[in-house]
Amino acid sequence: MIRPILLYGDSILRMKSEEAIKINKDLPHLIRDMKDTLENTHGVGLSAIQIGIPIRIFIINANLDNIDFHFSGIFINPKILKEEGPIVKNTEGCLSIPQLNAMVDRFSKIKLYWLDENWEENKEEFTGMKSIIIQHEFDHLEGILYVDKVNQMWKSILEDGLDKISKREIEILYPWK
Ligand code: ZN
What is residue 133's predicted lDDT score, i.e. its pLDDT? Predict the structure, then answer.
């Protein structure tokens, strides 16, 4: 089921998400809804908190055919074990902050621990775009949005747009609230 995406200004997005627990029978349903919701938006990633559920899960489904980049996965209770430079600059957007983009500093390499859909443990190093997408989604679990991390110049560029989103003066093609 496609669920509405919480937009910038909603205080729930600022919550720190709680660890997922295996006995939670609603999780497969939640993950299915997250997949449906992400697919409907053409976004590359979605965290559970973005549909109002403060549980530490994000999903990624990035398919950029023009640069032959394909990356997808379900990440439950992820932990960033290591962050390594150099710092790279990346232009980011977010489904909770529609129609805006800004340059964000990210680590070029991270080591991630997570549980997959079968509750199997995984540990892997990610670089480049994969690393950046994970860092963006991971921030959501901590209640952090990419706009918190931009420099002063980008803050002023974003100001009007964020104000409009806060006032819900926007037109978006996917369900939101
Ligand atoms: Zn986001």
Answer: 97
What pLDDT is attached to residue 66?
A: 86
Mean pLDDT of each 10-residue bin along the chain, 177 residues long? 97 98 92 97 95 98 89 98 95 96 97 96 97 98 98 97 95 92
Enter the pTM of the model: 0.96
pLDDT value of residue 24: 87
137 belongs to the catalytic site: yes
No. of H helices and E strands in the chain? 3, 5
Question: How remote is the CA of residue 122 from the centroid of ligand 1, in Å?
Answer: 23
Measured in Å, residue 88 CA sits from the centre of ligand 1 at 18
Question: How does DSSP assign 53-68, residue by residue?
Answer: --BSEEEEEEEEGGGT
